Amino acid sequence: xxxxxxxxxxxxxxxxxxxxxxxxxxxxxxxxxxxxxxxxxxxxxxxxxxxxxxxxxxxxxxxxxxxxxxxxxxxxxxxxxxxxxxxxxxxxxxxxxxxxxxxxxxxxxxxxxxxxxxxxxxxxxxxx
Amino acid sequence: xxxxxxxxxxxxxxxxxxxxxxxxxxxxxxxxxxxxxxxxxxxxxxxxxxxxxxxxxxxxxxxxxxxxxxxxxxxxxxxxxxxxxxxxxxxxxxxxxxxxxxxxxxxxxxxxxxxxxxxxxxxxxxxx
DNA sequence: CTTGACCTTCCAATCATGGGAAGGTGTAGC
DNA sequence: GCTACACCTTCCCATGATTGGAAGGTCAAG
Lengths: 128, 128
Description:
The structure is a homodimer. Chain A has six helices and two strands. The first copy, chain A, is mainly α. In chain A, strand 1 (30-31) and strand 2 (37-38) form a beta hairpin. Chain A starts with a helix and ends with a helix. The structure holds a DNA duplex.
């Protein structure tokens, strides 16, 4: 299958497939006589793995590490678990930061009349 | 005061002050005879406003809009409140997305032995 | 009058992705 | 066989916010 069909089948855009190949996240696929990239089911499988890892918030570099673990049949599951839990902690930290921002801002907004008058504690507070 | 002192006083790095000026988020300051940027207390005040808006998660573009509202004494507080609440919603959406990722991953990790054996449901699930 | 801390501009890199140009290829219909 | 169109190739550029560094000018203290 060509890159467009692999994109369709994996949920990774053709652009990104080429990019992942360029940065060596995935191996270069076979080529047809005319130079077209040719993908097989295993390649699509790998691409789907990458897409899911990315959708779980892993960076491309982390995704590469996960891929290596995925392909290494002899790795210890403890390695994978450690990486996952470290990532969970990072995700929760980021989520908490965003929620703290939202909380602060919602608090400020609750003190703002929100009518036609110009006085607004939100801006007053940001600019104080 | 020079840019280094303005950076110190505002909490915005000298690099970013120059960048904000370049993209016209803030007005160009006065210049000394030798070409050094010269900042006054109002400039520092503006920079501090920018820093706080950024720390509340507003993009630079949104920060520019807030700055315009801040300087416009005749704006309606409703405009500010609407913008703030829209931003709160976006922040909460992003936080929820991160938490969903964390939850999924924590769930996967809870089913992983995390010992020396190779079988690991985390990778199995990502790659299925 | 030298040293060191500061300033200037310019250029490049980061991370992940998308957009588009210029040109080659594959296939369907006529 | 020719034409149209969808697809492929590589290459360069843009995003958003920030940091890093190089090359060179300025200022103040010793």
